[in-house]
């Protein structure tokens, strides 16, 4: 039994020196490698979260910028439309004023021409009436003939 105990102790020491030592070193190295891998993975996860957060912020900012550009474009187009409409109204009013002035001028010219014709017709009628001393029937006939003659000249 002592002999077995001695052999067991010698065998245990030999195993400890040649088998357990390298095995323990290998286990410790493996444990360190696993710990390093876990730390690297954790750093990578944190970095990817940080990058993801930055990308979300950039995307949100891009959305805000796009909305602001759309709002600015809408406001600008509304202003341009209002300017075009007001310019069209102003142009229409100018055209109306010019047309009214032209109509008024032509009306005055027509009235002036009519006055001149009426005046000359009156003078001619008076001349014819004076040339012929006529009774009332003859005067009415002369006026009717003269008006027919004037009517055909127009």
Shape: rod-shaped
Question: Helices and strands: which structural class?
Answer: mainly alpha
Which residues form runs of ≥5 with pLDDT under 50?
Answer: none
What's the story with the biggest beta sheet?
A: none
Please estimate the helix content: over 70%
Structural notes for this entry:
By secondary structure, this protein is mainly alpha-helical. The protein has one domain. The chain has 2 helices and no strands. The protein has helices at 2-131, 136-153. The radius of gyration is 59 Å and the shape is rod-shaped. The termini are far apart.
What would the keywords be for this entry?
mainly alpha; 154 residues
How would you summarize this macromolecular structure in one to three sentences?
The chain has two helices and no strands. The chain has 154 residues and is an all-alpha fold.
Topology (elements, then pairings):
Elements: H1 2-131, H2 136-153
């Amino acid at each position: 039994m002592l002999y077995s105990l001695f052999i067991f102790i010698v065998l245990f020491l030999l195993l400890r020196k040649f088998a357990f030592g390298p095995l323990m070193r290998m286990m410790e190295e493996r444990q360190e490698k696993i710990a390093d891998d876990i730390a690297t993975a954790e750093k990578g996860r944190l970095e990817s979260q940080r990058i993801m957060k930055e990308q979300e912020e950039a995307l949100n900012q891009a959305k805000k910028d796009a909305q602001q550009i759309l709002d600015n474009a809408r406001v600008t187009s509304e202003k341009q439309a209002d300017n075009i409409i007001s310019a069209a109204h102003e142009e229409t009013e100018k055209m109306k004023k010019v047309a009214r002035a032209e109509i008024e001028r032509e009306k005055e010219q027509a009235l002036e021409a009519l006055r001149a014709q009426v005046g000359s017709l009156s003078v001619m009628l008076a001349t014819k009436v004076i040339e012929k001393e006529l009774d009332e029937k003859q005067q009415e006939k002369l006026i009717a003939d003269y008006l027919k003659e004037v009517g055909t000249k127009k």
